[in-house]
């Protein structure tokens, strides 16, 4: 009896997740060594890999600038804020970026791989699915975090 294809990602299971992607996310979550991480799907490796990281001093505009205009990406952003009780807090946002100008194939690939990738990232507080910059505006994060 043969089980061809077992262990290989497909349209229903999504892409695999590179160890570096998990490690980099944990650095953001636990060590606060990154403000954000942008991930992309490497179709040759059939994995979600790290494309870019932002150092803790970078701002939200730097994060938005790292999202491509014509292609899909996953990203996590560590949002720091102060509550009305003057308490410092941090919430991690998962962003599924799928601009309307991106290729249909890319949109489908990212959509079918999202849940599997998202499950690998423990500790996400909020998820945003965005097709244009207004859907990931800083006010949207503030509204959800408070």
Task: Give your account of this protein's structure.
With 146 residues, the chain is of the alpha/beta class. It is built from four helices and six strands; from the N terminus they run βαββαββαβα. It has helices at residues 19-31, 60-65, 104-120, 138-145, and strands at 16-17, 36-42, 47-54, 73-82, 88-97, 126-130. A six-stranded mixed beta sheet has the order 1-3-2-4-5-6. The longest helix has 17 residues, at 104-120. The chain starts with 15 loop residues before the first strand and ends with a helix. Residues 1-12 have low confidence and may be disordered.
Summary?
The chain has 4 helices and 6 strands; from the N terminus they run βαββαββαβα.
In angstroms, what separates the terminal alpha carbons? 55 Å
Instruction: Output mean pLDDT.
Output: 91
**Fraction in beta strands:** 25-35%
Radius of gyration: 16 Å
Helix/sheet category: alpha/beta
Query: Which regions contain 5 or more consecutive residues with pLDDT less than 50?
Result: 1-12
Order of helices and strands: EHEEHEEHEH
Q: Which outline best applies?
A: globular
The largest sheet has its strands arranged as: 1-3-2-4-5-6
- Number of DSSP strands? 6
Set down the secondary structure blueprint.
Blueprint: E1 16-17, H1 19-31, E2 36-42, E3 47-54, H2 60-65, E4 73-82, E5 88-97, H3 104-120, E6 126-130, H4 138-145
Parallel strand pairs: 1-3, 5-6
Antiparallel strand pairs: 2-3, 2-4, 4-5
Which terms summarize this structure?
alpha/beta, globular, 4 helices, 146 residues
């Amino acid at each position: 009896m043969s089980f061809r294809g077992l262990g290989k990602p497909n349209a229903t299971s999504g892409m695999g997740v590179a160890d570096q992607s998990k490690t980099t996310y944990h650095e953001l979550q636990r060590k606060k060594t990154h403000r954000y991480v942008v991930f992309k799907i490497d179709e040759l490796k059939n994995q979600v890999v790290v494309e870019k990281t932002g150092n803790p001093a970078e701002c939200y505009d730097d994060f938005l600038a790292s999202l491509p205009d014509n292609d899909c990406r996953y990203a996590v952003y560590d949002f720091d804020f102060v509550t009305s009780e003057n308490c410092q807090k941090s919430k991690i946002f998962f962003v599924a970026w799928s601009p309307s100008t991106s290729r249909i194939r890319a949109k489908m690939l990212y959509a079918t791989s999202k849940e599997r990738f998202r499950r690998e990232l423990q500790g996400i507080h909020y998820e945003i699915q965005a097709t244009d910059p207004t859907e990931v505006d800083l006010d949207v994060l503030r509204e959800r975090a408070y």
